[in-house]
Amino acid sequence: MMAQLTSSERQNIIAIGLAILIGGFTLAILGRNDILGIHALLFVAAGGLAIIVGARNLYKPEPSEDRSQSYYDDPSKVGIFLALIWGIFGMFIGDWIAWLMAFPDMTFSEGWSSFGRLRPSHTTGVIFGFGGNALIATSFHVVQRTSRARLPSQVLPWFVLWGYNLFCLLGVTGYFMGITQSREYAEPEWYADIWLVIVWVSYFGLYIWTLARRKEPHIYVSNWYYMAFILVVAVLHIVNNLAVPLSWGSAKSYSLFSGVQDAMTQWWYGHNAVAFFLTAGFLGMMYYYLPKRAQRPIYSYRMSIISFWGITFFYMWAGSHHLHYTALPHWVQNLGMSFSVMLLVPSWASAGNALMTLNGAWHRVRDDAVLRFMMVAAIFYGLSTFEGSFMAIRPVNSLSHYTDWTVGHVHSGALGWVAMIVFGSFYALVPWLWKRKSMYSARLIEVHFWLALAGTVVYVFALWNAGIIQGLMWRTYNDGGTLAYSFMESVDAMRPYYVARGIGGLLFLTGTILCLYNVWMTTRMATETDTESVDQSVATLQPAE
Amino acid sequence: MDFDHNTLVAFSKSYGLFYLMGMSVVVLLYAFWPNNRDRFDAAANSIIESEDKPCQ
Q1: Model confidence pLDDT, tens digit, residues A237-296
Q2: Whole-angstrom distance between the N-terminal and C-terminal Cα of chain A?
Q3: Cβ <8 Å between A309 and B27
Q4: B29 shares contact with chain A (CB less than 8 Å)
Q5: What's the alpha-carbon Rg for chain A, to the nearest Å?
Q6: Is the minimum CB–CB distance between A301 and chain B shorter than 8 Å?
Q7: Four-CA torsion A54, A56, A58, A64, nearest 10 degrees
Q8: Quick check: pTM over 0.90?
């Protein structure tokens, strides 16, 4: 890993480590009377680690090969492993709290293991840890290939990757200690947020810099999606997290917004996190790895451009559908509802584009579990965007809101679309990156595919049932005009569905563990010296068009 | 610089609609402009061929 770095780059790593160490130390001293004093030690540890790694390798030999002749893939390789490790952690916590719903005693009687602290650890672990690392790893790979240019820096990609993981770690460890902003999907406190801004701006700069050095006249559409993801997440993160800390030595901060403005800002952020973190970036992934694996160009490149602008402009206005029947002005609710329905057009254009690309290669989808992962992802993308538009309609929302239908909808997108496209892309990418002939075990991929699909279907069906029953029980009146069921009766009715959800989650988690094992074993296999034969064998499966 | 709520709402409801329509027209023109066809086809096909090295 360090062998590819020149000695001046190793010095830069030490300098960055020193800056983080000093910053962390200052924060720890300022916050010595607060929980911040302990939390800031994570910065100290991270900075110290960077210094040690840099110093130990400082006098090792310089890289001999001409680096301009090859792509820089080490950060992508590490990112793949980090994504899978975070995925297993996040999904384990998720399944734990799923069982907790059915059996509330299945936890420790300690503060850290309360539902309110475990739940954000699950969402941060899977969305930011798993999804974010997958996006960073694949974006580095895709931008270099589509631009035919090497990453311009060798230190910056490491700073982005490790800095981002430090942010995720700050988030999760903070929740266990009780540190939270209480803003959904934006729980980490002000100092972690400022750190993420530094990391994210570096990511944006690195991406632009690579694109600026491209040898291709046209920027391939995947990069548009990745760029939208990076740029918009920066804007969302900064605005939603505008807050004033109690003091420089306190972990606690207060938001700049209050009342209905606060709610609107939170859900403008929250829904666009779904749009630009969990959709745009992964569409970039799909538009590269799906055509590449299928060995067929995307069905309609024009449609991919139209859906890009549709998604970026419509999604911005959809967030208010989270606040139907609240103090939010009625016209803002209507705006969110209309734009959510309009969103179906670009969403289905992308899902259809992916499926039409596979049209004519169905025999390959049948035989190749990797391609099947991507196909199922496109189908679930189409399904969950339809469901989302539907649930955003106010009368439908009156039934679905506050029920487990919402949770089911999120997981139909997160498991069925996001995780499936990640697994498909990883299984395609790992043999290319490590120059192996194929993955270690095709059979394990097959097992993983069915575990993941079964897990998703069980999960989603359980929560559709649960949500609709809850919604109906809450609005059923008896002859006397009062509610027919107490709230506790509706909770009790959920038990079988909550057990089913726990089983579905367990299947999905098992599949992810198999994926990590398979990827690890692939990296330990013998290198395929003749890399051409890999492409040949893929190409021969596909009759010439 | 004294905008009240109603002024801002009226502005959003009128200007917002027209800029969205204008945006759509520009995007559709760009996507369907005949001269762009070759460029898009080349881009769609460019990723299929495998490239292991940056071409310098």
Answers
A1: 999 999 999 999 999 999 999 999 999 999 999 999 999 999 999 999 999 999 999 999
A2: 41
A3: yes
A4: no
A5: 24
A6: yes
A7: -100
A8: yes
Chains A, B: CB contacts within 8 A come to 74
> Quick one: tokens of A414?
């997160």
Query: Which of A369, A384, A446, A372 is CA-nearest to residue A415?
Result: A384
For B45, which of A149, A297, A313 is closest by C-beta distance?
Answer: A297
Q: Do A449 and A393 contact (CB within 8 A), yes or no?
A: no
> Which contiguous run of DSSP H or E holds residue A254?
strand A253-255
- Report d(CA A385, CA A77) in Å as an integer: 31
In chain B, residues with a C-beta closer than 8 Å to the C-beta of A145 are 47, 51
Query: CB of A43 within 8 A of CB of A29?
Result: no
A292–chain B Cβ distance below 8 A for any pair: yes
Q: Is A305 on the interface with B (CB under 8 A)?
A: yes
Q: How many CB atoms lie within 10 A of CB A260?
A: 14
The answer to whether B28 contacts chain A (CB < 8 Å) is yes
ipTM topping 0.85: yes
Place of tokens 């590490």: A78
Task: Give the tokens for residue A531.
Answer: 């890399």
Decide: A384 and A394 in contact? Cβ < 8 Å.
no
Please tell me the distance from the alpha carbon of residue A426 to that of residue A131, in angstroms, as a whole number.
12
